[in-house]
Amino acid sequence: MTALLSLQKVGKRFGGLQAVHDLSFDMRQGEILGLIGPNGAGKSTLFNLINGVFAPNSGNIVFNGIDITGQRPFVIARHGLARTHQIVQPFTNMTVLENCTVGACFGRENLPLMRARDAAREAIVIAGLEDRAATLALHLTIAGKKRLELARALAAQPMLLLLDEVLAGLNPAEIEHMIGVIRRIRDRGISILIIEHLMQAIMSLSDRIIVLNYGEKLAEGAPSEVARNPQVIEAYLGDPKLAEQLQGHAEQPASNGSARHV
Amino acid sequence: MDSPITPQAMETVMIRRPSVRGAAIITRPFFWLITLVVAIFIVTPAIGNNVELRESLLLAAVYITLASNLNLMLGYAGYINFGSIVFFGLGGYICVWLVNSYDWPLWLALLAAGVGVSALSFIFGIGILRLRGPFFALSTIGIVEGVQAFVQNFTPWGGSSGIYISPAVFAPLGGPARALWVVYFALVAVMGLSLYLSYAIKTSKFGLGLLAIGQNEDAAAILGVPTPRYKALAYSASAFLPAIVGGLYFFKGAFIQPSDAFDLTLSTEAIVICMLGGQGTVTGVALGAYLYEELRGYLLTSETFSHFQLVVAGALLLLIVLFFPGGLMGFIYSRFPRTQRLLE
Amino acid sequence: MLGIIASLIDGVLVGLVYGLAAMGLTLIWGVMDVINLTHGTMIVGGMFALYLLATALGMPPYLTLPPVLIGGFVVGVALYWVAVHRMIGRPPLMSLLSTFAVNLMLIGIGTGLWGTALFNVSVSLPGLSIGRYTFPGAHILAAALAALIAGLLYLFLHKTRLGKALRAVANNREAAELVGIPTTKLLAIAVGCGVALAGVSGMLIGTLFPFTVLSGDGYQLKSFVVTVLGGFGNPVGALMGGVALGLLEGAVTPFVPVSWTLVIEFALFVLVLIAFPNGIFARRGAL
To answer: What stretches in chain A show pLDDT beneath 50?
Structure first.
């Protein structure tokens, strides 16, 4: 089976800083791929390269058999790639439903307005925002805005969803709810590439993990393998708390580890 | 930067909202409201051949057309166009020139003005719409300077002395007196079209995309809104009807020269009207235009204020921006929330 | 050939004054991301202050510089409290509209008082002759004064406590507030300085060319061009941008009708913005 998303030797430089260096990886259809790494490892830059906010200086990005290298974000969105932002970007003066209608209207299906509203409603239900549909985005709590980001991306009916720290800033109950939502999205056949700092969450969610450090791939594999990788642990030693979490995981391998790689 | 959300900021917030409606356009009440306004504009001056009322309503119709088309950029897409007068002036020139020098019938010259100016602004738009926010606003001033300099040096259009229309061109319309009525009804029709257009766009997918651009352009692009095309289309669409109105206006006056055609006062007034009525609303802009026209009429007759029209317009704009960013409709919506469903 | 060189040198002299004007615009932009659309009118304000002080009160033209500087500062602080203060933290288009509104009022008052008549302040200074060409003394003195004030501004921003605090606010307002810098007061001071620079450059331009109430538009445009050439929020770049624009004008004026100069400059403005979104001598937030 061909890869849904394939990065081939992708590089991005900002002035003198090599943010992403010669990065290659493939992602399968239906997979949840976790992306971890210390702060400044180039994770968010990588998202911006994939969805066209930045054009890479070198390499190719192929999505669903189409070369999307250097395409504008709205073109890439039409191909069926949606994302959320680490810092939420709602249309503050629109209701939750209207926000999601934008996603549905201009997403992969390019729906007419009325059908887009139905798709938007469905996405709102999946994200658990149904009682907020008529609320202006501006009045939502931070957890609500995070869910709105997810719902809006989902309304676009993407094939691949990029999630940038959707759990950050949420309380434990909200995190649990969000993890449930992410699993449900995957069960609908949508592939997910996720950046997350909460080790426990990403280890249990992901089928596979890629570790970035200084813009390069440090390790790749099932969560349990990655967590035991001495290089990875070393990279995280700058951040003792995270290193500890990683080691905690190595001792009790994640539940469904590599079982899903068929 | 974090600033507490003030009630004023909220008003702007409430007002620039998309409006997605299910039913076909002619079954919606707001469509008939526009039709009613157009009917009033047609009928009231015609009763008793009231020329004075006609002239005052004519100016209101010009304001409504300019402001509601400006609103497509300012109120929907969130881009300030300081140079909307270019559409009006160029439309006037093209129309007057074709009628006068090539004996084109008025309707064809008007159509040519609309299409020509729209096409031209689409080309301008592709260039300057690559600039964001304030930079776009600044470059629209440049468009005015550029077009004005061009016209002043363009001999077929009479350079800085302009074009006079010979009275003979009024003959096909039944002589000068009847021609004024014809022009008036045509202007009202264009005003009606402007309002229908604003409303149709607001309730469409295109309008939803524009409003998304107005609120967060980057997020809109990432969700798939084709931002460059939508902005250029909105800019170009906002040129079409103002160009036709310019054609009618200068045909009626039988004279056009650069300093009248590109008088920045009119673009400025269009901005004041948009903000006064409530940017992003259809009703508000029409209401704002009417009120502004009334206010202006009062000021012009008052001895002290007639020299200070700009001062009054500026003070009005400043007060609105500082204290009522939602304009009249923001105020009405917040007092009577149910009106939001009826008045777009 | 020599004529072009002379034209270029004169362009640099005038360009230094444009650079000074643009410093006023870019200072405000750099500190608070506000584009001051009263800028052109403030330049005209400097011109009229020169005219009134020099012709009505009989002051020597160059001695009007200190009162214009102080007056400009006071006007700027007032402008901050009237039109800018409430716009901080609102969408950038709102401050554009509020300064635009104030500009309308000022233009309205100006045309009400003086109409659109042409005013002129004559300055007689011996010129500097090189070969067949004479460079007007007024141009040389204006350029020297502009360079001097620009230098003083640089020292102010980099060597004084107040200047350093201003740069801190420009860099990161929240962080500046956290370390106890009174940001609101500093924002007001920044607008005051910006307007004072506009006024002084207007006063200097008034010694060179005749002017009307509406002259501001053209000079404001020049300031924008200079600002994008020099990089937004970068006063040193502004001076370099001014010289660049002066050179361009010097190169273009012998060949192109005057009414096209502004158009060429605006085309340059748009092209530079598209090609170099951060300015050619870009150091964003470098104040």
So the answer is: 253-262
pLDDT digits (tens, 9 = 90+) for A83-136: 999 888 989 888 899 999 999 999 888 888 888 888 999 999 988 888 888 888
Evaluate whether residue C56 is within a structural domain: yes
Query: Domain limits at C95?
Result: 2-112+135-275
Domain that holds residue B259: 54-264
Residues of C in contact with B138 (CB under 8 A): 35, 224, 269
B9 assigned to some structural domain: no
Helical H segments across chain B, by residue range: 7-15, 29-46, 51-71, 85-102, 106-128, 133-152, 175-202, 205-215, 217-222, 227-253, 258-261, 264-277, 282-301, 309-323, 327-335, 339-342
Domain count of the fold of chain B: 1
Q: Can you spell out the DSSP letters for C107-120? A: HHHHHHHHTT--B-
Report if residue B293 sits inside a domain.
no
Q: Quick check: A98 contacting B, CB < 8 Å?
A: yes
CATH of the domain at C185: 1.10.3470
> Looking at the domain assignment, is residue C41 inside a domain?
yes
- Closest-CA residue to B34 (of B198, B204, B273, B196): B196
Residues C125 and C110 sit within 8 Å (Cβ to Cβ): no
- Count of structural domains, chain C: 1
Shortest distance between the Cα of A119 and any Cα of chain B, in A, equals 14
CB nearest to C102's CB, from B141, B307, B318: B318
Among the partner residues B13, B222, B223, nearest to A92 by beta-carbon distance: B13
Q: How far apart are CA A129 and CA A142, in angstroms?
A: 13
CB contact under 8 A, B128 and C105: no
